[in-house]
Amino acid sequence: MKYYAGLDIGGTVARMKIEYVDGRAGEFYGAGGTMNTDGYEKCNAKYRSFILPILEEAQIKAEDCVKICVAASGIDSPRQEEECRRSFLEMGFRPESILVYNDCEVFLHVSTGPAIVLVCGTGSIAYARGESGAITRCGGWGHVLSDEGSGHNMGMKVIKEAANHIDGRTSCPILYELFEAQSGLKTLDEINTFVNDMLMEKTQIASFAPLAEKAYELGDETGLKILRECRDELFALVKDVYYKADLDRYQKEAPVELWLWGSVLLKNKIIAPELTDLLKKDFPSIQIRIPEKTALDTALDIAKS
User: Fold this and answer.
1) Which residue numbers delimit the ATPase BadF/BadG/BcrA/BcrD type domain (predicted)?
2) Rg of the chain over all Cα atoms, to the nearest angstrom
3) H or E, element range at 129
4) What is the tens place of the pLDDT at every residue in 213-237?
5) How far apart are CA 276 and CA 256, in angstroms?
6) Torsion of CA 65, 68, 74, 77, to 10 degrees
7) d(Cα 268, Cα 149) in Å, to the nearest integer?
8) Which is deepest, 74, 111, 121, 255, by most CB within 10 Å?
């Protein structure tokens, strides 16, 4: 049975959608993996343990796939793209059937011309496609080097402000109380130990990000300070990738579409509206859009096209 497949593979959750040539479709979920942090061997094992049982359950073969588009977290270099491709080759998919993209990059394909994608969830990244079709990026190099304005970045800001409150350097009683209630941490020593233990567990740190908005809603201006710092960092990501892709020259001829995606941009009530206002002021010809389809459905559309 011939079929098309789209995959959205994040660090925690993996999704696969299969559409047969007769129009029937199926959707599957499992554990994800990230090539840039897990490494090839571990990530390859995760890919196989997710995909091979699906093929067996659906009674289909890898070699019968017309086209498969893999949108995977951690595809940050040609080497990682090739390693991801090798994993699917070893599962039996034909070389000509495999397309591999970073899971954020796929949204560029929603536009036909030059475009930008800004994704901000636990991490952050900006992609741009220039007039020549070449794709460039800024950010997204992990939570230690970058991920500016992201949920992890915001969570760390919350932790630092709570620590400074304890240390008597600033005053943010509402934010501190929210942080203490969620974390159970009451002393600088406890916070220091927690941060060091969780240094590579970015989702744990990011879990404190919503406290900034909640504190602001309760009257703590420190929450707004954190949100606006993240807003400005995301604005800088868009600006940097915009000029890196030479879109300032193209924009004289036609508008550039900017696609926003990720939990911070879709759910935060302060950051997205204020970021949109800043972008419209400095880049009036940019057209800001929200994708109508998920990364999974977009990957499947790319495979079918």
Assistant:
1) 6-291
2) 21
3) strand 124-129
4) 999 999 999 999 999 999 999 999 9
5) 14
6) 100
7) 12
8) 74
Q: How far is CA 145 from CA 46, 125, 142, 153, 264, in A?
A: 25, 12, 6, 11, 19
Here the tokens at position 151 are 């949920």
**CA contacts within 13 A on the Cβ side of 145:** 6
Q: Quick one: pLDDT at residue 267?
A: 94
Residue type, 131: E
Long-range contacts at 278-286 (CB < 8 A, ≥ 24 apart) = 278/231, 278/235, 279/235, 279/238, 282/239, 283/238, 283/242, 283/251, 283/256, 285/251, 285/255, 285/256, 286/116, 286/251, 286/255, 286/256, 286/257, 286/258
| pLDDT level of residue 1 (50, 70, 90 thresholds) | confident
Q: Measured on CA atoms in the order 120, 124, 130, 132, is the torsion positive or negative?
A: negative
